[in-house]
Amino acid sequence: MALTEIELKRCEKSLAEFLERRRPPVHLRDELDLAYRIDGHNVEIFEIRQDWKDHATKHEAPVAKATFVRTKGVWKVLWMKRDLKWHGYEPNPEVKTLEAFLDVVDRDDFGCFYG
Questions:
Q1: Half-sphere exposure of 46 (CA within 13 A, CB side)
Q2: What is the per-residue pLDDT across 62-103, written as a single tens digit (0 to 9) for each?
Q3: Does 34 fall in a domain?
Q4: How far apart are CA 47 and CA 58, in angstroms?
Q5: Is residue 60 domain-resident?
Q6: Relative to the CA of 30, which of 51, 52, 56, 101 has its CA 20 to 30 Å away?
């Protein structure tokens, strides 16, 4: 079962506030931007980059992912390793709220999300 409408709106509000802090300046957003998508219980944050050869082409690069586990009432924090698979973020594998997930991603203490 996906997020409820209330949960979805709350997530969208928190993610919009996060992006407001983290997005690059407006004049750079054609070349590099930050976005999110919500799919079922999953929230994914990703970068959008302009192709270096073909400026009309855009590429997405994953930054972080959170999966809501309704039975436990927690968000699993995931990051993509070089094997291109999502792995649990060991320093904080689970958090209670989406805002806590966004705080973990924002701090990026170990350079897993932004490199």
A1: 14
A2: 999 999 999 999 999 999 999 999 999 999 999 999 999 999
A3: yes
A4: 10
A5: yes
A6: 101
Type of residue numbered 111: G
Q: Are strands 32-39 and 42-50 parallel, antiparallel or unpaired?
A: antiparallel
Is the distance from CB of 86 to CB of 2 less than 8 angstroms?
no
Assign 91 to helix, strand or coil: coil
Residue with tokens 């192709």: 51
As a whole number of angstroms, the distance between CA 113 and CA 98 comes to 16
- Evaluate whether residue 114 is within a structural domain: no
Look at the block and give the residue holding tokens 């070349």.
31
Residues spanned by the domain of 58:
5-107
The answer as to whether 112 is a domain residue is no
